[in-house]
Each structure stands twice: as structure tokens, then as C-alpha cells.
Design goal:
The structure is a single chain. This protein is α+β, with helices and mostly antiparallel strands. 39% of the residues lie in helices and 24% in strands. Strands 1, 2, 3, 4, 5, 6, 7 and 8 form an eight-stranded mixed β-sheet that branches. The longest helix has 22 residues. The radius of gyration is 16 Å and the shape is globular.
Length: 203
């Protein structure tokens, strides 16, 4: 079993998760990205749409956005397609599409705080359980490390549409208000907030 095999029901049963759906779960301000990213998205978002594969959306839309986020926040590390095996017995193993760690250490994952899953066949609902499973794994990882991180954030995206999630203790919150790539300053505000609002003492 891997992260992608989980369902909402299995997450509730296996990890005693309470899942809440609400709007605007992250407080944020607008953040304007660089002119480089604006130009990159202007050039390549249409190409990603025409190619219409998960790989194209990952390479031409998602990766540049997360690369820009790394430039804005040099104290984080960014991982792509990395194995994140936390507990094989519980099915918390497999590769993460993208993982952000609250550590400048790039050679190994030290403090995962944001997990991002690319929605297969552009289906956000089907990708949400996988993202939640990875968030649970990150929570367990941090508990074992004793690094004091209490809140884990998740993102499910098609590249054009972005959904945010938050996990604290055994309560997972899914934001029903999705963010669109056309509102890139709002998107960057939310992504930045998952990092800037982090506090190892209070999550």
C-alpha cells in the first residue's frame, strides 16, 4: 500500500482523522511574484494546456511556481519526486510529487511542512486523500524528530486550480475555496503563508 491507495474512509479509520470542510483556512496577503515567473507562466501555461499531460503541467507550471517560492524563502528546501517512506506497516510510503521542508538542508528531508500532490486526470477530489496521507506521514516524521512542528499544510493542484489543506493533531481541514492560477498573487500569498506563519512553538 502507498499514499495513493488511501481513501477518505480509510484515513478516518486508520488514523482517527476528523475532516472538516470550510473556506479560507489560511490567513494571507497578496504576494507579487517576479517578472520572470510572470513571463514563464505567460509563455508556457498555454503549452502545458495543449500537451495536456500531468508531466507537462508539472514541468511548465508547478515546478516554476515552487522554484520561485524557494527563491522567496531561501530557508526552505524543496524536493520533487522524492521517496518519503515513514511507516510501511501503515502504508505511509511512496514518492511525493513535491515536498517542502522548513530547513535549508537540501540533501535530506529534515522538517516537512508542506506536501503537494498533482491531481491525476485533473481530479482534485481523488488526489485529496493521497495528500492527506502524506500530511499524516509528515506529522509522524516530525513527531519522531522532535522538531516541534505541529501544523502540516497540503496542496492539491491541477496546475490551474489549487486546493489547500491543513492538518493539526488529528483534525484535517480542507479549504473548499479553490485558488486559480489567474490569481497568481493570491496563490503566492497562500503558499508564503504556509511558511511564514510557521512557528515551532505553536504550529
Amino acid at each position: 500500500m502507498e499514499y495513493s491507495d488511501f481513501t477518505i474512509d480509510k484515513l478516518k479509520t486508520e488514523f482517527n482523522l476528523t475532516i472538516i470542510e470550510q473556506n479560507d483556512i489560511i490567513k494571507s496577503e497578496l504576494v507579487t511574484p517576479s517578472s520572470w515567473l510572470d513571463e514563464t507562466l505567460r509563455r508556457f501555461t498555454p503549452l502545458a494546456g495543449v500537451i495536456n499531460t500531468e508531466k507537462a503541467r508539472s514541468e511548465f507550471i508547478i515546478a516554476p511556481i515552487l522554484g520561485e517560492l524557494k527563491e522567496m524563502h531561501p530557508d526552505i528546501s524543496l524536493f520533487s519526486g522524492t521517496e518519503f517512506n515513514v511507516d510501511f506497516a501503515k502504508g505511509l510510503n511512496g514518492h511525493c510529487d513535491f515536498l517542502i521542508s522548513k530547513s535549508a538542508e537540501q540533501l535530506s528531508i529534515e522538517a516537512p511542512v508542506v506536501l503537494l500532490v498533482e491531481a491525476k486526470k485533473e481530479n482534485l477530489n481523488k488526489a485529496t486523500p493521497q495528500c492527506l496521507a502524506e500530511m499524516v506521514a509528515a506529522q509522524i516524521f516530525n513527531q519522531r524528530k522532535g522538531n516541534g512542528i505541529k501544523s502540516i499544510f497540503g496542496v492539491v493542484t491541477t496546475g490551474s486550480v489549487w486546493r489547500f489543506l491543513k492538518l493539526e493533531n488529528n483534525v484535517a481541514i480542507v479549504d473548499l475555496k479553490e485558488v486559480y492560477l489567474s490569481s497568481v498573487d493570491k496563490l503566492f500569498g497562500l503558499l508564503s503563508a504556509t511558511l511564514k506563519n510557521y512557528d515551532s512553538n505553536d504550529g
